[in-house]
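Hi F.,

I've been meaning to write this up properly since the lab meeting, where we talked about keeping a consistent format for the predictions we share between groups. The idea is simple: the sequence comes first, exactly as it goes in, then the structure tokens exactly as they come out, then a line or two of notes. No screenshots and no reformatting. I'm using this chain as the first example so we have something concrete to point to.
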Amino acid sequence: MIYSEKVMEHFQNPRNVGVLKNADGVGQVGNPVCGDMMTFYIKVEDNRIADVRFQTFGCGAAIAVSSMVSEMALGKTLEEAMEISNKSVAEELGGLPKNKLHCSNLGADALHKAIENYKKRQKATKKDQPAKSADKAKCYCPYCEGSLEGMEGFCKECQIELEECGECGMPKRKGAKECPHCGKTKVIV
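Output, unedited:
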């Protein structure tokens, strides 16, 4: 399997890796066949992607794709970023082997989900809803704000398992090192 120099560069030196605290939008996708998982976090200012980060669990092509998508999206309007496609990602990377093209789909899809999540959050914020009480807040996913009513340990929208943070008691991704609510980091000894 031969990768372009650009793929190797983005795999060996990925850009924009990590989690954005208090992200405006979060999108996660996965491919159960190959096991690749991608999560994109975006910050939006004046309808532009002001910052972007990603976490990817997968092969070298998946990491390179995530890195490239993050660079392609940075500074773009939300509408421009929604036009990033699997084809444009693969072209920017100088091509991908046929059996790795699905990775470019995942990268673009994860970014698009983060943008959709941002828009969904904006609609929810605009509605004049009463503030949620601390107990009521436990009924919402901290990543997509989907309802967890009756499913506190699992978010149907994100398709992720959740557990209670030992510090603040709010839901967080099962096994996650950092809580999206209080920011406390699990210390592994």
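Notes:
Residues 130-137 have pLDDT under 50 and may be disordered.
Residues 69 and 107 are 6 Å apart (CA to CA).

If this format works for you, I'll send the rest the same way.

G.
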